[in-house]
Structure formats: structure tokens, C-alpha cells
């Protein structure tokens, strides 16, 4: 019994890379999730990006902007409303705080202020956090009197069917809430308007389908790439090398088959999402096909790359699990990007997941046209990732796989 145990331990320690990955993988994932959720010791909340469009351009609106800019909770950027709306629709910004014309006059009359938060409904959770912080800050800047009027007006607009007696009681409760110290039940003084909400597809559905499809495709292509090493171990690769085939053609054949299977897998997953959950995959067929091809090319290149740099199938399995879970976490497949620290959000651009998910958002949610520069950029980046990984794969294939075949 003990001899069998010792034999298994020796086999485990014989594969140094595999043994290292057995410990490195959980350590890496613990570190990644700890950083993503702020578990790195003393936690200080980072400033939220706040884009402001000043349509009033008065002393009162400038006073509000300066007051918000002075707070550590916000990182303020002032731009035009058209620019802000364009950035939101393309997914480059989350929301814009609009100070409409007439704000100064409303402030003088103690009337509700024309302040509006326009946002991307696909990032509603992130917007809710921003709106909550803005409501408390604007209350201090503008004053309770104006806040009470604004909150009562918002309540009446959202609840037109309430009878007069109940309405009056709730009005008194709102006034009492703003007058007291308990801020937990305050009604928002900011009118919220989703900018990207006319799409037929739910942003949550797009996230679930795109994020999961890309992550599972990465696992699939890693397994398919590892079959190259399996062929080497079984002697199939050596027999192919004795044939008239050029050695590179063996790798190119593997690349082609992995690409074809990747495209088929993505098509099947999106068709399933259409049949089971009503995802409208027909609103921009050309853009969808191009994004599927680009994503499949990048993902399949990753699978072949892993097979080229590893020396055993167990190493491919360990490396693929570590890299895929890391890319999926920072790329948005597993953790919403807005939850992460700013440096991790910037790191997302190195993952295939990020570019693929954002590309499918462009199609199903933002409904960008095929010739839009943002959409084209995402497609180009995915193809560049695939080309670079394929070039590296060819070099390592000659060095690692062919030498020991």
C-alpha cells in the first residue's frame, strides 16, 4: 500500500511543470479574485469616473461641477452632450450627468433642478452605484429644500396611480426623510434615462451567451491543440514526419481543423441561444459572421499555441486552466469589469474574452453598423491576436514538438 503511494508521489513529482501548476493555479486564482474584490489589505475606494455635460453654462452649473470635482469620490470630465452620448452608445463610457438649460433659473425659484443621468442600460448595476453616490453628494451641494421637491416630483411621476391620501402621507415621509439623518430611503433627485435600451436583446443575455461561449471555446480549443501532443506520444506524429508531408503542413492542418470546429461551436451556441432564450441573431448577420470568424480564429490560435509551448498533455491541461480562467476573469466572462480595480480593467485588453464580448455587445446591444470604427477595431485586434499566436506557435512547434517527435 505504501509502495503504491510512493510510486504515485514519484510520478507526480516527475513532471516538474505539472507539479508547479498544481500549486500555482489556486494561488493565482486566489490572488486574482482577491484583487478584483478589494481584498488586498486596507481597502480604499477608488474614484468613479463622472462625465458631465453642462448645457446650462451658468454660474450655478459651474458651481455644481466644481463642487463635484472637489470630492474624492469622483473623477470629473466635462464634455459636450453629443460626444458623451456617442461614447456611451459605443460602450466607451458608462453614463453622463446632464445639467440641462434652465438649471440656474430653477435654483433661484427653488424649483426641481433639470438634472438627468443618461446611461447604458447594459451597465445598470454600475450606474446604480454611481447614482447613489451622486444623490448624496448633490444633496449637500444643492440643499435639502430643492432635494425634497425633486424627490416628490420623481415619486409622483413614477407612481401616478396612488390615491391622494396615500400620496400625501408618502410626501410627508419623503420630506421627513430628507430632514432627518437617515439617508437610506431617500428618493433620487436625478432623472435617469437609459440611452441604449431600445435593443431587443437583453444585455444580461448578451453577457451570458458571449462570455460563456468564448470561455468554453477556449477550453475546447486547448483540448484540441493538446491532441497534437497525444499524437506525438502515440507515435502518429513520427509516422507523419516520415511521409512526404512537409512538417509545417501537419501544424497547418491542425490549425485549419481547430478553426473550423471553433466556428461551428460558436454558431451552434448562438443558434441555441436564439431557440432557447430568444436572442435575436438576425439583426446584423454579416457583422455576426465576421465577429464569429475573428473570435474563432483568435481562440483556435490560442489552443495551438498552448500545444506548441508545452511538452506533455498534462502541462497543456494545467496551463490552459490557469490562463483561460485568468483571461476569463479579467476579460469580463466571470467578473463584471466595473467591480475590478482600475489597473485590472486596463489589463482586460490583453484577453481574447474582452474583445470578443465587447464585439458581440456591439452587434446585439449597441447595434453598431458593420463599418463602425469601434466594431472594426475589435475585429482587427482579434485577428492580430490570432496571427501573432500562430507565428509563435510555428516557431515553438519546430523547437519543441518536431525535435522530440
Topology:
Blueprint: H1 2-14, H2 16-36, E1 48-54, H3 59-69, E2 74-78, H4 81-89, E3 95-99, H5 103-108, E4 115-119, H6 124-142, H7 144-158, H8 164-179, E5 191-194, H9 203-234, H10 236-241, H11 247-277, H12 285-309, H13 313-331, H14 342-347, H15 352-364, H16 373-401
Parallel strand pairs: 1-2, 1-3, 4-5
Antiparallel strand pairs: 3-4
Structure description:
The structure is a single chain. The protein has a 5-stranded mixed beta sheet, sandwiched between helices. The chain is α/β, with parallel strands linked by helices and 405 residues long. Helix 9 (203-234) packs antiparallel against helix 13 (313-331), helix 13 crosses helix 15 and helix 15 runs antiparallel to helix 16 (373-401). Strand 1, helix 3 and strand 2 (74-78) form a beta-alpha-beta unit. The protein contains 16 helices and 5 strands. Residues 181-188 have low confidence and may be disordered. The chain is elongated and about 90 Å long.
Amino acid at each position: 500500500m505504501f509502495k503504491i503511494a510512493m510510486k504515485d508521489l514519484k510520478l507526480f513529482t516527475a513532471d516538474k511543470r505539472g507539479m508547479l501548476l498544481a500549486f500555482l493555479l489556486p494561488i493565482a486564482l486566489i490572488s486574482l479574485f482577491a484583487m478584483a474584490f478589494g481584498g488586498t489589505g486596507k481597502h480604499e475606494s477608488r474614484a468613479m469616473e463622472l462625465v458631465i455635460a453642462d448645457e446650462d453654462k451658468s454660474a450655478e452649473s459651474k458651481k455644481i461641477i466644481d463642487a463635484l470635482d472637489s470630492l474624492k469620490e469622483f473623477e470629473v470630465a466635462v464634455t459636450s452632450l453629443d460626444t458623451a452620448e456617442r461614447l456611451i452608445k459605443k460602450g466607451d463610457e458608462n453614463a453622463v450627468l446632464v445639467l440641462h438649460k434652465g438649471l440656474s433659473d430653477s435654483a433661484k425659484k427653488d424649483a426641481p433642478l433639470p438634472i438627468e443621468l443618461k446611461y447604458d442600460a447594459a451597465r445598470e448595476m454600475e450606474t446604480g452605484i454611481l447614482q447613489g453616490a451622486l444623490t448624496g453628494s448633490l444633496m449637500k451641494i444643492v440643499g435639502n429644500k430643492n432635494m425634497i421637491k425633486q424627490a416628490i416630483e420623481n415619486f409622483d411621476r413614477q407612481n401616478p396611480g396612488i390615491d391622494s391620501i396615500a400620496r400625501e402621507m408618502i410626501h410627508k415621509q419623503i420630506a421627513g426623510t430628507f430632514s432627518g439623518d437617515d439617508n437610506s430611503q431617500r428618493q433620487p433627485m436625478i432623472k435617469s434615462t437609459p440611452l441604449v435600451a431600445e435593443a431587443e436583446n437583453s444585455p444580461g443575455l448578451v453577457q451570458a451567451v458571449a462570455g460563456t461561449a468564448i470561455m468554453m471555446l477556449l477550453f475546447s480549443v486547448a483540448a484540441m491543440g493538446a491532441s497534437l501532443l497525444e499524437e506525438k506520444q502515440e507515435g502518429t506524429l513520427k509516422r507523419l514526419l516520415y511521409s512526404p508531408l512537409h512538417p509545417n503542413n501537419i501544424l497547418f492542418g491542425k490549425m485549419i481543423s481547430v478553426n473550423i470546429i471553433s466556428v461551428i461551436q460558436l454558431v451552434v451556441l448562438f443558434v441555441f441561444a436564439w431557440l432557447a432564450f430568444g436572442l435575436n441573431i438576425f439583426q446584423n448577420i454579416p457583422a455576426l459572421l465576421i465577429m464569429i470568424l475573428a473570435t474563432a480564429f483568435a481562440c483556435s490560435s490560442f489552443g495551438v499555441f498552448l500545444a506548441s509551448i508545452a511538452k506533455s498533455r498534462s502541462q497543456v491541461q494545467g496551463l490552459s486552466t490557469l490562463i483561460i480562467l485568468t483571461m476569463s476573469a479579467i476579460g469580463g466572462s466571470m467578473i463584471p469589469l466595473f467591480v475590478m480595480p482600475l489597473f485590472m480593467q486596463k489589463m482586460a485588453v490583453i484577453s481574447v474574452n474582452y474583445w470578443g464580448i465587447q464585439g458581440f455587445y456591439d452587434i446585439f446591444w449597441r447595434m453598431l453598423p458593420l463599418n463602425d470604427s469601434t466594431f472594426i477595431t475589435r475585429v482587427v485586434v482579434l485577428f492580430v491576436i490570432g496571427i501573432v499566436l500562430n507565428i509563435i506557435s510555428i516557431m515553438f512547434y519546430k523547437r519543441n514538438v518536431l525535435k522530440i517527435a
